[in-house]
Amino acid sequence: MKYISQYSDRLAEAFKRIEELENENKILRKEITKYRRTHPRSSTTHSMESPGLSGSPHYTLPTLSSRNKDKSELQDACNNQRESKLPTLFISGIPYRYKDCVPRQVFKEEKRSSLPPPPRCYPGYMESTTASRHHASDGWAWPPKTPWRKEIPGSSSCEKIHPIPDPPSTSPPTPLPTDTGVEVEIKDDLEERSRLDDNLRFKIEVWTDTKTNLKYLRKASKIVQKSIFDARKNGGLGIRSPEIFEDGPHTILLGRDELMSWLGDVAPETLLAYNGYSSQQVYCSLLGTVYLRNTISHPSAWELQDSREVDDLLRRAQRVAIILGNEEGTLEIRAMRDALRDAASKFLQCIKDLYYMTLLPDCDMPEFGNHHKRLFKWALRRSKNWYEEERESYKEVLAVASAWNLRRQKDGSD
Protein backbone atom coordinates (compact mmCIF):
# COMPACT_ATOMS: atom_id res chain seq x y z
CA MET A 1 0.00 0.00 0.00
CA LYS A 2 2.93 2.29 0.69
CA TYR A 3 4.23 1.94 -2.89
CA ILE A 4 0.81 2.42 -4.42
CA SER A 5 0.14 5.63 -2.54
CA GLN A 6 3.57 6.94 -3.52
CA TYR A 7 2.93 6.44 -7.27
CA SER A 8 -0.59 7.80 -7.04
CA ASP A 9 0.76 11.05 -5.58
CA ARG A 10 3.19 11.37 -8.50
CA LEU A 11 0.39 10.81 -11.03
CA ALA A 12 -1.72 13.46 -9.39
CA GLU A 13 1.17 15.95 -9.63
CA ALA A 14 1.72 15.03 -13.28
CA PHE A 15 -1.94 15.56 -14.17
CA LYS A 16 -1.86 18.89 -12.37
CA ARG A 17 1.24 19.96 -14.31
CA ILE A 18 -0.33 18.93 -17.61
CA GLU A 19 -3.39 21.00 -16.83
CA GLU A 20 -1.20 24.03 -16.07
CA LEU A 21 0.67 23.64 -19.36
CA GLU A 22 -2.56 23.40 -21.33
CA ASN A 23 -3.86 26.60 -19.72
CA GLU A 24 -0.57 28.34 -20.47
CA ASN A 25 -0.76 27.14 -24.09
CA LYS A 26 -4.25 28.60 -24.48
CA ILE A 27 -3.06 31.97 -23.13
CA LEU A 28 -0.12 32.02 -25.55
CA ARG A 29 -2.39 31.19 -28.51
CA LYS A 30 -4.64 34.13 -27.66
CA GLU A 31 -1.65 36.49 -27.46
CA ILE A 32 -0.35 35.26 -30.85
CA THR A 33 -3.75 35.89 -32.41
CA LYS A 34 -3.81 39.45 -31.08
CA TYR A 35 -0.28 40.03 -32.34
CA ARG A 36 -1.19 38.86 -35.88
CA ARG A 37 -4.13 41.25 -36.01
CA THR A 38 -2.02 44.28 -35.02
CA HIS A 39 1.08 43.26 -37.08
CA PRO A 40 0.01 41.49 -40.39
CA ARG A 41 2.59 39.18 -41.94
CA SER A 42 4.09 40.04 -45.36
CA SER A 43 2.53 37.99 -48.23
CA THR A 44 5.77 37.66 -50.16
CA THR A 45 7.44 34.29 -50.06
CA HIS A 46 10.75 32.94 -51.18
CA SER A 47 9.32 31.45 -54.37
CA MET A 48 7.74 34.74 -55.45
CA GLU A 49 10.67 37.08 -54.75
CA SER A 50 11.60 39.19 -57.76
CA PRO A 51 14.48 41.65 -57.21
CA GLY A 52 13.80 45.12 -58.50
CA LEU A 53 10.03 44.54 -58.96
CA SER A 54 8.84 44.89 -55.35
CA GLY A 55 6.64 47.86 -56.16
CA SER A 56 5.08 46.36 -59.33
CA PRO A 57 1.60 44.79 -59.47
CA HIS A 58 1.43 41.04 -58.91
CA TYR A 59 0.35 40.31 -62.49
CA THR A 60 3.59 41.85 -63.84
CA LEU A 61 5.82 39.61 -61.73
CA PRO A 62 7.52 36.68 -63.49
CA THR A 63 6.26 33.25 -62.60
CA LEU A 64 8.31 30.21 -61.77
CA SER A 65 7.55 28.72 -65.20
CA SER A 66 8.77 31.81 -67.09
CA ARG A 67 12.00 31.92 -65.09
CA ASN A 68 12.63 28.24 -65.81
CA LYS A 69 11.93 28.86 -69.51
CA ASP A 70 14.67 31.49 -69.68
CA LYS A 71 17.05 29.05 -68.05
CA SER A 72 16.12 26.29 -70.53
CA GLU A 73 16.65 28.60 -73.55
CA LEU A 74 20.06 29.57 -72.22
CA GLN A 75 20.86 25.90 -71.65
CA ASP A 76 19.76 25.01 -75.22
CA ALA A 77 22.00 27.74 -76.61
CA CYS A 78 24.92 26.35 -74.62
CA ASN A 79 24.15 22.84 -75.87
CA ASN A 80 24.06 24.07 -79.47
CA GLN A 81 27.42 25.78 -79.03
CA ARG A 82 28.80 22.58 -77.54
CA GLU A 83 27.44 20.58 -80.50
CA SER A 84 29.03 22.98 -82.98
CA LYS A 85 32.43 22.00 -81.58
CA LEU A 86 31.84 18.33 -82.39
CA PRO A 87 33.71 16.88 -85.40
CA THR A 88 31.89 17.05 -88.74
CA LEU A 89 31.38 13.95 -90.88
CA PHE A 90 30.88 14.32 -94.65
CA ILE A 91 28.67 11.77 -96.44
CA SER A 92 28.36 12.29 -100.22
CA GLY A 93 29.56 15.85 -99.72
CA ILE A 94 26.87 16.63 -97.10
CA PRO A 95 28.07 17.56 -93.59
CA TYR A 96 26.71 15.55 -90.63
CA ARG A 97 27.27 15.70 -86.87
CA TYR A 98 26.41 13.02 -84.36
CA LYS A 99 23.66 13.78 -81.87
CA ASP A 100 22.36 11.09 -79.54
CA CYS A 101 24.41 8.54 -81.48
CA VAL A 102 22.57 9.47 -84.70
CA PRO A 103 24.16 11.50 -87.55
CA ARG A 104 22.20 14.70 -88.19
CA GLN A 105 22.59 16.86 -91.26
CA VAL A 106 24.26 20.22 -90.60
CA PHE A 107 22.49 23.21 -92.14
CA LYS A 108 24.24 26.48 -92.80
CA GLU A 109 23.41 29.25 -90.42
CA GLU A 110 21.88 32.39 -91.94
CA LYS A 111 24.00 35.51 -91.64
CA ARG A 112 21.09 37.70 -90.60
CA SER A 113 20.43 35.59 -87.52
CA SER A 114 22.79 35.55 -84.55
CA LEU A 115 21.15 32.50 -82.99
CA PRO A 116 22.17 28.97 -83.96
CA PRO A 117 19.70 27.03 -86.12
CA PRO A 118 17.21 24.84 -84.26
CA PRO A 119 18.25 21.20 -83.98
CA ARG A 120 16.49 18.79 -86.32
CA CYS A 121 15.39 16.13 -83.87
CA TYR A 122 12.85 14.35 -86.08
CA PRO A 123 13.50 11.28 -88.27
CA GLY A 124 14.32 11.49 -91.94
CA TYR A 125 10.96 10.25 -93.20
CA MET A 126 9.36 13.40 -91.78
CA GLU A 127 11.56 15.66 -93.92
CA SER A 128 9.71 17.62 -96.57
CA THR A 129 10.48 16.75 -100.17
CA THR A 130 11.04 19.14 -103.06
CA ALA A 131 7.54 18.50 -104.36
CA SER A 132 5.89 19.13 -100.99
CA ARG A 133 7.84 22.36 -100.49
CA HIS A 134 6.75 23.68 -103.88
CA HIS A 135 3.21 22.50 -103.24
CA ALA A 136 3.02 24.45 -99.98
CA SER A 137 4.71 27.59 -101.35
CA ASP A 138 2.84 30.64 -102.63
CA GLY A 139 2.22 30.79 -106.33
CA TRP A 140 2.43 27.03 -106.86
CA ALA A 141 0.80 26.35 -110.21
CA TRP A 142 -0.92 23.20 -111.41
CA PRO A 143 0.16 21.06 -113.21
CA PRO A 144 3.85 20.26 -112.56
CA LYS A 145 6.22 19.69 -115.43
CA THR A 146 5.80 16.39 -117.25
CA PRO A 147 8.74 13.98 -117.14
CA TRP A 148 10.95 14.00 -120.19
CA ARG A 149 12.88 11.09 -121.67
CA LYS A 150 16.59 10.95 -122.18
CA GLU A 151 18.40 8.49 -124.42
CA ILE A 152 21.14 6.48 -122.72
CA PRO A 153 24.25 6.02 -124.90
CA GLY A 154 24.68 2.43 -125.96
CA SER A 155 21.11 1.46 -125.12
CA SER A 156 18.05 1.09 -127.32
CA SER A 157 15.68 2.09 -124.53
CA CYS A 158 14.93 5.47 -123.10
CA GLU A 159 15.24 6.30 -119.44
CA LYS A 160 12.46 8.33 -117.88
CA ILE A 161 13.93 11.26 -116.00
CA HIS A 162 12.01 13.35 -113.48
CA PRO A 163 13.78 16.73 -113.37
CA ILE A 164 13.49 18.88 -110.28
CA PRO A 165 10.71 21.40 -110.95
CA ASP A 166 11.59 25.05 -111.14
CA PRO A 167 10.47 27.38 -108.34
CA PRO A 168 6.91 28.68 -108.74
CA SER A 169 6.65 31.66 -111.00
CA THR A 170 5.53 34.94 -109.50
CA SER A 171 4.58 36.45 -112.84
CA PRO A 172 0.90 37.31 -113.40
CA PRO A 173 -1.24 34.65 -115.10
CA THR A 174 -1.51 34.68 -118.86
CA PRO A 175 -4.67 36.51 -119.97
CA LEU A 176 -7.34 34.40 -121.65
CA PRO A 177 -8.06 34.85 -125.37
CA THR A 178 -10.64 37.41 -126.34
CA ASP A 179 -13.11 34.80 -127.60
CA THR A 180 -13.10 32.82 -124.36
CA GLY A 181 -16.12 34.66 -123.04
CA VAL A 182 -18.35 33.41 -125.86
CA GLU A 183 -17.21 29.82 -125.36
CA VAL A 184 -17.81 30.00 -121.62
CA GLU A 185 -21.35 31.27 -122.24
CA ILE A 186 -22.02 28.36 -124.60
CA LYS A 187 -20.49 25.93 -122.10
CA ASP A 188 -22.54 27.23 -119.20
CA ASP A 189 -25.69 27.25 -121.32
CA LEU A 190 -25.31 23.55 -122.23
CA GLU A 191 -24.50 22.67 -118.64
CA GLU A 192 -27.60 24.46 -117.38
CA ARG A 193 -29.90 23.14 -120.10
CA SER A 194 -28.84 19.57 -119.42
CA ARG A 195 -29.12 20.06 -115.61
CA LEU A 196 -25.75 18.48 -114.90
CA ASP A 197 -25.93 19.03 -111.13
CA ASP A 198 -29.55 17.89 -110.81
CA ASN A 199 -28.50 14.73 -109.00
CA LEU A 200 -30.63 11.94 -107.61
CA ARG A 201 -31.27 12.64 -103.92
CA PHE A 202 -33.38 10.45 -101.66
CA LYS A 203 -33.33 10.16 -97.89
CA ILE A 204 -33.31 6.38 -98.10
CA GLU A 205 -31.78 3.70 -100.30
CA VAL A 206 -33.79 3.21 -103.51
CA TRP A 207 -32.80 0.27 -105.70
CA THR A 208 -33.83 -0.08 -109.33
CA ASP A 209 -33.58 -2.74 -112.04
CA THR A 210 -30.00 -3.85 -112.73
CA LYS A 211 -30.55 -4.79 -116.39
CA THR A 212 -31.96 -1.38 -117.24
CA ASN A 213 -29.19 0.41 -115.34
CA LEU A 214 -26.48 -1.61 -117.09
CA LYS A 215 -28.04 -0.70 -120.43
CA TYR A 216 -27.91 2.99 -119.47
CA LEU A 217 -24.24 2.76 -118.50
CA ARG A 218 -23.24 0.98 -121.71
CA LYS A 219 -25.03 3.57 -123.79
CA ALA A 220 -23.35 6.39 -121.85
CA SER A 221 -19.96 4.73 -122.41
CA LYS A 222 -20.51 4.75 -126.18
CA ILE A 223 -21.43 8.45 -126.01
CA VAL A 224 -18.15 9.15 -124.18
CA GLN A 225 -16.18 7.25 -126.83
CA LYS A 226 -17.88 9.17 -129.64
CA SER A 227 -17.28 12.49 -127.85
CA ILE A 228 -13.56 11.75 -127.55
CA PHE A 229 -13.34 10.62 -131.17
CA ASP A 230 -15.13 13.73 -132.50
CA ALA A 231 -13.01 16.06 -130.36
CA ARG A 232 -9.81 14.44 -131.61
CA LYS A 233 -11.11 14.61 -135.18
CA ASN A 234 -11.64 18.36 -134.75
CA GLY A 235 -8.02 18.83 -133.66
CA GLY A 236 -8.42 18.67 -129.89
CA LEU A 237 -6.94 16.53 -127.11
CA GLY A 238 -3.34 16.83 -128.30
CA ILE A 239 -1.32 14.75 -130.73
CA ARG A 240 -0.27 11.80 -128.56
CA SER A 241 -0.87 8.27 -129.90
CA PRO A 242 -2.95 9.22 -132.97
CA GLU A 243 -3.16 5.56 -134.04
CA ILE A 244 -5.83 4.76 -131.43
CA PHE A 245 -8.23 7.19 -133.14
CA GLU A 246 -7.89 5.77 -136.65
CA ASP A 247 -10.51 2.98 -136.73
CA GLY A 248 -13.35 4.73 -134.94
CA PRO A 249 -14.75 5.44 -131.47
CA HIS A 250 -15.24 1.75 -130.66
CA THR A 251 -11.44 1.29 -130.34
CA ILE A 252 -11.10 3.98 -127.67
CA LEU A 253 -10.70 2.21 -124.34
CA LEU A 254 -11.73 3.93 -121.11
CA GLY A 255 -9.48 1.98 -118.74
CA ARG A 256 -7.08 3.94 -116.58
CA ASP A 257 -3.90 2.64 -118.20
CA GLU A 258 -5.34 3.01 -121.71
CA LEU A 259 -6.40 6.62 -121.09
CA MET A 260 -3.10 7.60 -119.49
CA SER A 261 -1.20 6.08 -122.42
CA TRP A 262 -2.25 9.08 -124.52
CA LEU A 263 -3.26 11.57 -121.80
CA GLY A 264 0.03 11.28 -119.90
CA ASP A 265 0.76 11.01 -116.19
CA VAL A 266 -0.28 14.62 -115.65
CA ALA A 267 -2.21 17.03 -117.82
CA PRO A 268 -0.04 19.41 -119.87
CA GLU A 269 -0.67 23.10 -119.43
CA THR A 270 -2.37 23.80 -122.76
CA LEU A 271 -2.34 20.59 -124.82
CA LEU A 272 -5.72 19.29 -123.62
CA ALA A 273 -7.53 22.63 -123.32
CA TYR A 274 -10.69 22.42 -125.41
CA ASN A 275 -14.03 24.17 -125.89
CA GLY A 276 -13.25 26.87 -123.33
CA TYR A 277 -12.25 24.38 -120.62
CA SER A 278 -8.79 24.22 -119.11
CA SER A 279 -6.43 21.31 -119.58
CA GLN A 280 -6.96 20.24 -115.98
CA GLN A 281 -10.74 20.12 -116.36
CA VAL A 282 -10.52 17.99 -119.51
CA TYR A 283 -7.94 15.68 -117.93
CA CYS A 284 -9.92 15.08 -114.71
CA SER A 285 -13.23 14.57 -116.49
CA LEU A 286 -11.76 11.92 -118.82
CA LEU A 287 -10.13 10.02 -115.96
CA GLY A 288 -13.45 10.17 -114.10
CA THR A 289 -14.93 7.75 -116.65
CA VAL A 290 -12.66 4.96 -115.37
CA TYR A 291 -15.28 4.13 -112.71
CA LEU A 292 -17.90 3.89 -115.47
CA ARG A 293 -15.74 1.46 -117.43
CA ASN A 294 -15.00 -0.69 -114.34
CA THR A 295 -18.69 -1.03 -113.46
CA ILE A 296 -19.51 -2.11 -117.02
CA SER A 297 -16.58 -4.53 -117.30
CA HIS A 298 -17.13 -6.05 -113.85
CA PRO A 299 -20.88 -5.74 -113.22
CA SER A 300 -22.13 -6.31 -109.71
CA ALA A 301 -25.74 -6.35 -108.60
CA TRP A 302 -24.93 -4.32 -105.50
CA GLU A 303 -23.54 -1.48 -107.63
CA LEU A 304 -25.99 -1.65 -110.52
CA GLN A 305 -29.09 -1.66 -108.30
CA ASP A 306 -28.05 1.46 -106.37
CA SER A 307 -29.86 4.27 -108.18
CA ARG A 308 -27.67 7.01 -106.68
CA GLU A 309 -24.48 5.22 -107.70
CA VAL A 310 -25.75 4.74 -111.25
CA ASP A 311 -26.82 8.39 -111.43
CA ASP A 312 -23.31 9.47 -110.39
CA LEU A 313 -21.72 7.33 -113.12
CA LEU A 314 -24.09 8.79 -115.72
CA ARG A 315 -23.22 12.28 -114.48
CA ARG A 316 -19.51 11.59 -115.12
CA ALA A 317 -20.29 10.64 -118.71
CA GLN A 318 -22.52 13.70 -119.12
CA ARG A 319 -19.70 15.90 -117.85
CA VAL A 320 -17.34 14.59 -120.54
CA ALA A 321 -19.96 15.14 -123.25
CA ILE A 322 -20.46 18.75 -122.10
CA ILE A 323 -16.74 19.53 -122.00
CA LEU A 324 -16.09 17.99 -125.42
CA GLY A 325 -19.08 19.79 -126.96
CA ASN A 326 -21.31 16.78 -127.73
CA GLU A 327 -24.70 18.41 -127.23
CA GLU A 328 -26.71 15.49 -128.62
CA GLY A 329 -24.97 12.99 -126.35
CA THR A 330 -25.36 15.32 -123.37
CA LEU A 331 -29.13 15.54 -123.75
CA GLU A 332 -29.37 11.79 -124.33
CA ILE A 333 -27.57 11.04 -121.05
CA ARG A 334 -29.79 13.57 -119.28
CA ALA A 335 -32.83 11.69 -120.59
CA MET A 336 -31.45 8.43 -119.15
CA ARG A 337 -30.89 10.10 -115.77
CA ASP A 338 -34.49 11.36 -115.82
CA ALA A 339 -35.75 7.86 -116.64
CA LEU A 340 -33.74 6.50 -113.71
CA ARG A 341 -35.26 9.15 -111.45
CA ASP A 342 -38.78 8.26 -112.63
CA ALA A 343 -38.22 4.55 -111.90
CA ALA A 344 -36.94 5.32 -108.38
CA SER A 345 -39.79 7.76 -107.67
CA LYS A 346 -42.34 5.24 -108.94
CA PHE A 347 -41.03 2.59 -106.55
CA LEU A 348 -41.14 5.05 -103.63
CA GLN A 349 -44.74 5.93 -104.44
CA CYS A 350 -45.61 2.23 -104.60
CA ILE A 351 -44.10 1.75 -101.13
CA LYS A 352 -46.16 4.64 -99.75
CA ASP A 353 -49.36 3.21 -101.21
CA LEU A 354 -48.64 -0.25 -99.83
CA TYR A 355 -47.78 1.16 -96.41
CA TYR A 356 -51.43 2.00 -95.71
CA MET A 357 -52.51 -1.41 -96.98
CA THR A 358 -50.21 -3.13 -94.49
CA LEU A 359 -52.25 -1.58 -91.68
CA LEU A 360 -55.18 -3.74 -92.78
CA PRO A 361 -55.33 -7.46 -91.95
CA ASP A 362 -54.53 -9.97 -94.71
CA CYS A 363 -53.36 -7.41 -97.24
CA ASP A 364 -52.31 -8.63 -100.68
CA MET A 365 -48.74 -7.97 -101.83
CA PRO A 366 -47.91 -7.45 -105.52
CA GLU A 367 -45.06 -9.19 -107.25
CA PHE A 368 -41.76 -7.41 -106.62
CA GLY A 369 -38.57 -7.49 -108.66
CA ASN A 370 -35.37 -9.09 -107.43
CA HIS A 371 -33.85 -5.70 -106.58
CA HIS A 372 -36.92 -4.86 -104.47
CA LYS A 373 -36.70 -8.17 -102.61
CA ARG A 374 -33.02 -7.56 -101.90
CA LEU A 375 -33.91 -4.11 -100.54
CA PHE A 376 -36.51 -5.61 -98.20
CA LYS A 377 -34.08 -8.24 -96.92
CA TRP A 378 -31.40 -5.61 -96.45
CA ALA A 379 -33.74 -3.30 -94.51
CA LEU A 380 -34.99 -6.09 -92.23
CA ARG A 381 -31.44 -7.25 -91.51
CA ARG A 382 -29.93 -3.80 -90.92
CA SER A 383 -32.83 -2.29 -88.98
CA LYS A 384 -31.72 -4.06 -85.81
CA ASN A 385 -28.70 -1.72 -85.59
CA TRP A 386 -30.37 1.49 -86.75
CA TYR A 387 -30.89 4.58 -84.66
CA GLU A 388 -34.34 5.99 -84.08
CA GLU A 389 -33.90 8.57 -86.88
CA GLU A 390 -33.04 5.88 -89.42
CA ARG A 391 -35.94 3.70 -88.37
CA GLU A 392 -38.26 6.67 -88.79
CA SER A 393 -36.91 7.35 -92.31
CA TYR A 394 -37.37 3.70 -93.31
CA LYS A 395 -40.72 3.32 -91.50
CA GLU A 396 -42.73 2.71 -94.67
CA VAL A 397 -40.12 0.41 -96.21
CA LEU A 398 -39.90 -1.65 -93.02
CA ALA A 399 -43.68 -2.00 -92.80
CA VAL A 400 -43.96 -3.24 -96.39
CA ALA A 401 -40.89 -5.46 -95.97
CA SER A 402 -42.34 -7.05 -92.84
CA ALA A 403 -45.67 -7.75 -94.58
CA TRP A 404 -43.86 -9.19 -97.60
CA ASN A 405 -41.66 -11.35 -95.37
CA LEU A 406 -44.71 -12.66 -93.47
CA ARG A 407 -46.46 -13.65 -96.68
CA ARG A 408 -43.25 -15.24 -97.96
CA GLN A 409 -42.98 -17.39 -94.84
CA LYS A 410 -46.61 -18.48 -95.15
CA ASP A 411 -46.18 -19.42 -98.81
CA GLY A 412 -42.82 -21.06 -98.15
CA SER A 413 -41.20 -19.21 -101.06
CA ASP A 414 -37.84 -17.50 -101.29
Overall pLDDT level: 75
Cross-sheet strand order for the largest sheet: 1-2-3
From the N-terminal CA to the C-terminal CA, the straight-line distance is: 110 Å
Morphology: flat
Helix content: 40-55%
- Strand percentage lies at 5-15%
Query: Tally the helices: what do you get?
Result: 14
Instruction: Report on the biggest sheet.
Output: 3 strands, antiparallel
Task: Indicate the low-confidence ranges by residue numbers.
Answer: 43-53, 110-114, 138-142, 144-165, 175-184
Secondary-structure element string: HHEEEHEEHHHHHHHHHHH
According to DSSP, the number of beta strands is: 5
Structural class: mainly alpha
**Alpha carbon gyration radius:** 41 Å
How would you describe this structure to a colleague?
Among the domains are: 180-345, no CATH class; 348-411, no CATH class. 52% of the residues lie in helices and 5% in strands. It has 14 helices and five strands. The protein has helices spanning 2-38, 64-84, 130-136, 180-193, 210-233, 256-263, 279-287, 290-297, 301-304, 307-323, 327-358, 370-382, 388-393, 395-411, and strands at residues 89-91, 94-99, 102-105, 148-151, 158-161. Helix 10 (307-323) packs antiparallel against helix 11 (327-358). The longest helix has 37 residues, at 2-38. The radius of gyration is 41 Å and the shape is flat. It starts with a helix and ends with a helix.
